[in-house]
Amino acid sequence: MVSAPTGRIAAPRLVRLLGAWHAAGRPASSALVSALRLLVLDGRLPPGTALPAERELAAALGVSRTLVATAWEALRAEGLLRSRRGAGTWTALPGRPRPQDPPQDQPLDLARAAPAALPAVAHAVDAVRGDLAAELAGHGYHEYGLDLLRERLAARYTARGLPTTADEVLVTNGAHHALALVLRAFTGPGDRVLVDQPTYPNAIDAIAAAHAIPVPVPLLEDGWDLDGVAAALRQSGPRLAYLVVDFHNPTGLLLDAGGRADLTALAARARVPLVVDETLAELDLRAAPPRLAPVRGPGTVITIGSAGKSHWGGLRIGWVRADAEVVRRLAAARHAFDLGSPVVEQLVIAHLYADPEPAIAERRAELAERRDLLVGELRAHCPDWGFRVPDGGLGLWCELPGPFSSRLAAAARTVGVRLAPGARFSVHGGLERWLRVPFTLPEPALAEAVRRLSRVASVVGGSPGSDGEGLVPVA
Ligand SMILES: Cc1ncc(COP(=O)(O)O)c(C=O)c1O
């Protein structure tokens, strides 16, 4: 809680921010309360902003001083304003949690779609102690990755329908590092990189950090616009294409076998290497799915994978699967970044991939339960949000009843919920009607997060039947 003002807003500017606050058919003081509450909750009036004196603001608004005083009294009671003789009145965020709310120093994090480690990870950490002695006797630098892990990852690809040998696998520090390496090896400043839109935000950042230019091809409501991809390949001359076709982040969409064949044919014809991010590929939540094989050529296909979502992101282990020649090129590019991935973490994943199915099945079951709970909670508490229930992946891509995703994300912070608004998933911003809601938190935390979101959404989005009266923000 801010105990003294740290900035000031002049009366004319506050009047402009308040805009058309005076709602017809509603007491003026309650309309002023709602309008100012919204400014504080969505971050346009940051905590610690000193407000003009009541008399000055009343004159600027053309209302009585009593009306302003009444509204300020109500906002003080909510914890959104504080006053002290001599220091005036300033904005604040309410600090007292209600008894049933979890502690606010641990925000409910819906900005990251990343589950906690499976218990199998801790067991694997214990199990690899015995294997460590042999590694400790060596120098520990393996720029391609440990042979054991490369072999086991290759075996998993083969089992999934894409015959692979160990020399076609490069171990990396997560899928994100894998993409950075591919960009380093395949693109230069000013090159274009075709991407889905929406897409994984850190991929957009990695492309920008490589001084390349992302060229977005918007997804259709139910899948990939392959005509759009063909046109972008023709018109933009990209150096690389980066797509997430398995339980796409954020939409959860899956490109079917026919679509995969068409996509690779298009990229091969345009001679554009295709980077397929398979980070979510193992997270197929269907009971009896027709599992699709990983994307394969014609043409150059570079597959990026990760143990981050299936097992645990904290291990920071990912990989690239590509022709041995491409793998050599990436290992050479790696020297500018790092000199290999941590050995103990690789041993842990190698242990888990000796028999990968049980742990992955456990993760799928956990995520399926959480997805179903989130679907139920959103239908109950946010009935005007639209979404498709995805067959896999880590989140729901929700269509909000209005363009307020960023405002909702700002307001959600005040109730201890972190969100990544739709604009984060877009190359040029926008997507304000969209919000990704991951189902990676445990069930009670997910239910609590939705309850809090529904309260702030009714204020920020002004959903029918609610003007936010009765909102009790908790952080
Ligand atoms: C599509 C996609 N690619 C890459 C990553 C990053 O994976 P890692 O933690 O292995 O770097 C994520 C994480 O959410 C992702 O969703």
TrEMBL record:
Keyword Transcription: yes
SMART domains: HTH_GNTR
Bilayer-spanning residue ranges: none
Region (Disordered) residue spans: 88-107
InterPro entries membership: Aminotransferase_I/II_large (IPR004839), HTH_trans_reg/aminotransferase (IPR051446), PyrdxlP-dep_Trfase (IPR015424), PyrdxlP-dep_Trfase_major (IPR015421), Tscrpt_reg_HTH_GntR (IPR000524), WH-like_DNA-bd_sf (IPR036388), WH_DNA-bd_sf (IPR036390)
Keywords recorded for this protein, A-Z: Aminotransferase, DNA-binding, Pyridoxal phosphate, Transcription, Transcription regulation, Transferase
Pfam families referenced in this protein's UniProt entry, alphabetically: Aminotran_1_2, GntR
Entry superkingdom: Bacteria
Residue ranges constituting the HTH gntR-type domain according to the UniProt record: 26-94
MF GO annotations: transaminase activity
Pro residues compositional bias, start-end: 96-105
Family of the protein in this entry: In the C-terminal section; belongs to the class-I pyridoxal-phosphate-dependent aminotransferase family.
PANTHER family from the UniProt entry: HTH-TYPE TRANSCRIPTIONAL REGULATORY PROTEIN GABR
Protein name: PLP-dependent aminotransferase family protein
Organism of provenance: Actinokineospora guangxiensis
